[in-house]
Specification:
Length: 282
């Protein structure tokens, strides 16, 4: 397999905020999207493809400990919101707020960088698959710390481990995009301070939350355009990358070349990818 793309043309990952967007410059879109991705364009099918995975939910529940009240920042359609705690969701995008199930609390329209709550208002805070999109990572995390008396829990990806996923062979531009967006867990830990634990979360087989690596053992599923749209990284690469990906992966699946290299993943119980749970206790 050959790639017309030159890896040297992709900007190096930022070492400051982890975001490719300079701090505080992400412009709100028509639906209020406050991060680097435009959810008015890509958000509509989110809930179809990004259903919370029960095994990841269990790890989050464990990290939240005995907290009774929780603020969920960048809450989106409500994934990973516990139903047995008092949850206050915060979500800037109207497209995402509109997808919240009716049995969850409606989300407050706000961004992480300016949370409309008093100091120590919540027992715990959660941010899942969102910090890499914020215009100002440091401000957002400091706000989470400010409004939370107990653990701040961040579900995110380690940019240094993204290339473990076979997608790097087919769409290195997508991996490079993600590497430039995701902040290093150590950077998140440094900003949040206190007693910080970084847990590596293996991605479970059949993961129902369709972030890229969830498809580690089901490559055919990523040929679905909707599955790719539900991963914001694909919105930063041109359509030619998607077209080449579908063409080359499709051909390798048909010829058996993908299975010869990665077929063992079809039966694997889990994949040690880039998923990390960062728990900062004051
Ligand atoms: C990939 S979705 C994750 C949603 C949800 N937390 C989940 O796990 O499914 C990222 C979310 O972060 C939100 N977001 C982006 N920038 C934000 C910011 N500056 N403050 C708060 N939320 C933001 C987006 O609007 C979007 O709903």
């Amino acid at each position: 397999m050959t790639h017309p793309w030159d890896p040297a043309s992709v900007p190096a990952p930022s070492t400051s905020t982890g975001s490719s967007i300079p701090a505080g410059t992400a412009a709100p879109r028509g639906d209020g999207s406050a991060g680097d991705a435009d959810y008015s364009a890509i958000g509509a099918g989110y809930r179809t493809y990004r259903r919370p995975d029960p095994r990841i939910a269990e790890a989050i529940e464990d990290a939240l400990g005995t907290a009774r009240t929780l603020v969920n920042v960048g809450a989106g359609a409500g994934s990973y919101e516990p139903t047995d705690r008092e949850v206050t969701p915060v979500e800037p995008s109207a497209t995402m707020r509109a997808q919240r199930p009716s049995d969850l609390a409606p989300a407050i329209e706000a961004g992480a960088e300016d949370l409309p709550f008093a100091d120590g208002a919540f027992d715990a805070a959660l941010a899942s698959f969102t910090v890499h999109q914020w215009g100002d990572l440091e401000k957002g995390l400091r706000e989470m710390r400010r409004v939370t008396a107990g653990p701040v829990v961040v579900l995110s990806c380690d940019p240094a481990a993204l290339d473990r996923f076979w997608l790097a062979e087919y769409a290195p531009e997508v991996i490079a995009t993600e590497a430039s967006r995701y902040p290093a867990p150590a950077r998140i830990a440094e900003i949040l301070g206190g007693d910080v634990e970084v847990r590596e979360l293996p991605i479970p087989r059949g993961c129902t939350d369709g972030f890229g690596e969830a498809y580690f053992g089901r490559p055919e599923a990523l040929l679905d355009a909707g599955a790719r749209t539900a991963n914001s990284a694909w919105s930063f690469v041109g359509p030619e990358v998607s077209e080449r990906f579908v063409r080359e992966l499709g051909a390798d699946l048909e010829s058996g070349a993908w299975d010869a290299r990665h077929g063992h993943l079809r039966e694997a119980e889990a994949f040690d990818g880039s998923l990390r749970l960062i728990i900062a206790r004051p």
